[in-house]
Design brief:
The protein is an all-alpha fold. It folds into 3 domains: 206 residues, MFS general substrate transporter like domains (Growth Hormone, Chain: A, Up-down Bundle); 76 residues, no CATH class; 211 residues, Growth Hormone, Chain: A, CATH 1.20.1250.20. 81% of the residues lie in helices and 0% in strands. It has 24 helices and no strands. The longest helix has 30 residues. The radius of gyration is 22 Å and the shape is globular.
Length: 493
């Protein structure tokens, strides 16, 4: 689990922080840099294909390695390949960003798939009394992986000669190729470990043919979404111009235009699925058991009003933290901090503060109850995000950076510990995998979409005002917790 956790921790920061610094050094605009964070939306939509990964056998690999190890090998190979493809693209060259974006989306999709399989492997490979140890070891490996792809990548790129004043593509290429090779840790682990006994003996509930039919619908839906989104770019530009005339606010205009574009693309996919449901390609019972039953169970247990309130809360609890986090590394770079300073303070020191915050949040949740610590985490997130305004005014101040990172990461760890405990309490043991996948996907979906506009927001309002806005959008979360707390189901928490 330590090595699998390491393998799972590598991709995330190669999509977020390390990639954003690379693009910034290559002279890419802030708005474009933060748009790349949308590639990580695969983590937010993984619940859509999690049931397929959970059930569908792979030709040859499932027979030779088993269902879990087979999917692990495929996802890890795809991650290694995607990181290597990113390394082959120089973003400073014309038309290179489109190719890089495709490779980054591949990385996000592959990494999210790996997470699905590792979660299933962890649960199935040990008894209940060992799950806490399995989880804690996995998290430790995950943090080490993040440290490697975060601080490690920045230090290596800096050592090889790339900086904000002297961009060096070769340095970043070698760095990302080295990061791709770190995935060999996970690949070797997958080949060495044993398949969980329960998955070796379990036969598919449905035939491979039915799963392939189901997978084909999923792939067609993705294709329709991508093509629709691509071909509506001119339509979105027209909408943005109209909104700009009406609102005289470019940030709001861009947000509204892109939101309508996303909704339109999504509605076309819904219409396609509805139309295909009348054909023999659509397996009604499989879809019902896979997607409808877990969702119906959640609404049945909590009622429609409370269920909607809970889902809104899950979707927005971390909004303030994630929106700020998308542009944080670009901010540190713009303030004059070197990659080595960012690697030392933000990545390494900050990582240990996050771990400490996680332990603190867990202890406090046991002592005072989950709801109280959810309150504390939400309040401290608003307060600590305001500290970034001080850093924006002070500029390059290494002492203040340590203070800001200490407060921010300690709070993030504390809030996350209470939040994960709360999410776990919402799931029904009969539908744990699917329901938790929905919750974990939902909790990052809206924040990541909003975070993609953080570069445009900074360009229009400056860092100080942006950090104020990022803090204030966390205030409604306190009200959501208050309404949840009033229900009898959560008073004991």
């Amino acid at each position: 689990m330590l090595f699998l956790g390491f393998s799972a921790g590598i991709p995330l920061l190669l999509i977020f922080s390390s990639l954003s610094l690379w693009l910034r050094e290559a002279g890419i605009e802030r708005a474009t840099v933060t748009y790349f964070s949308w590639a990580a939306l695969a983590y937010s939509f993984k619940f859509l294909w999690a049931p397929l990964v959970d059930r569908m056998p792979l030709p040859i690999l499932t027979r030779v390695l088993g269902r879990r190890r087979g999917w692990l090998l495929v996802s890890q190979t795809a991650i290694l390949t995607s990181i290597a493809l990113i390394a082959m693209v120089d973003p400073a060259q014309s038309n290179a960003l489109t190719i890089m974006a495709i490779a980054v989306v591949m990385l996000g999709f592959s990494a999210a798939t790996q997470d699905i399989v590792i979660d299933a492997y962890r649960i199935e490979s040990a008894e209940t009394d060992l799950q806490a140890l399995m989880s804690s070891t996995y998290i430790a490996g995950y943090r080490i992986g993040m440290l490697t792809s975060g601080a490690g990548a920045l230090i290596l790129a800096s050592y090889l000669g790339s900086s904000t004043t002297s961009y060096n593509y070769d340095a970043w290429q070698i760095t990302y190729l080295c990061m791709s090779l770190t995935m060999l840790v996970g690949l070797v682990t997958t080949l060495v470990i044993k398949e969980p006994p329960c998955t070796q003996k379990t036969s598919s509930q449905y035939s491979t043919r039915k799963y392939i039919k189901f997978l084909s619908i999923f792939l067609m839906g993705i294709t329709i979404f991508i093509l629709t989104y691509s071909f509506t770019s001119s339509f979105a530009a027209t909408l943005k111009s109209l909104f700009l005339v009406a609102t005289n606010n470019s940030v709001l205009s861009n947000f509204l235009g892109e939101t309508i574009r996303l909704i339109f693309s999504f509605l076309l996919v819904v219409a396609f699925v509805k139309a295909i449901s009348y054909t023999t390609l659509y397996e009604h019972q499989l879809v019902k058991e896979t997607y409808i039953d877990p969702v119906a169970d959640f609404f049945t247990r909590y009622g429609i009003k409370l269920a909607i309130l809970l889902l809104v809360f899950v979707g927005f609890y971390r909004v303030s933290d994630i929106v700020l986090g998308v542009i944080s590394n670009v901010f540190f770079l713009d303030m004059g901090f070197t990659k080595s300073e960012i690697a030392t303070v933000v990545k390494t020191f900050g990582l240990f503060m996050t771990i400490a915050g996680g332990f603190l949040g867990g202890i406090l949740a046991v002592r005072f109850g989950i709801i109280r610590i959810l309150y504390l985490g939400a309040f401290l997130t608003v307060v600590t995000n305001l500290l970034f305004m001080l850093l924006a005014q002070a500029g390059h101040n290494i002492e203040l950076l340590y203070i800001v990172i200490s407060a921010d990461n300690l709070t993030a760890g504390l809030a996350s510990a209470a939040f994960i405990a709360f999410l776990s309490s919402l799931t029904n043991i009969s539908f744990t995998a699917v329901q938790y996948a929905v919750f974990s996907s939902l909790m990052t979906l809206a924040p990541k979409i909003i975070g993609g506009y953080s570069g445009s927001m900074v360009d229009n309002m400056g860092y100080s005002t942006f950090f104020l806005v990022a803090s204030l959008i966390g205030l409604p979360v306190l009200l959501l917790i208050f309404f949840i707390q009033r229900h009898p189901e959560f008073k004991d928490q």
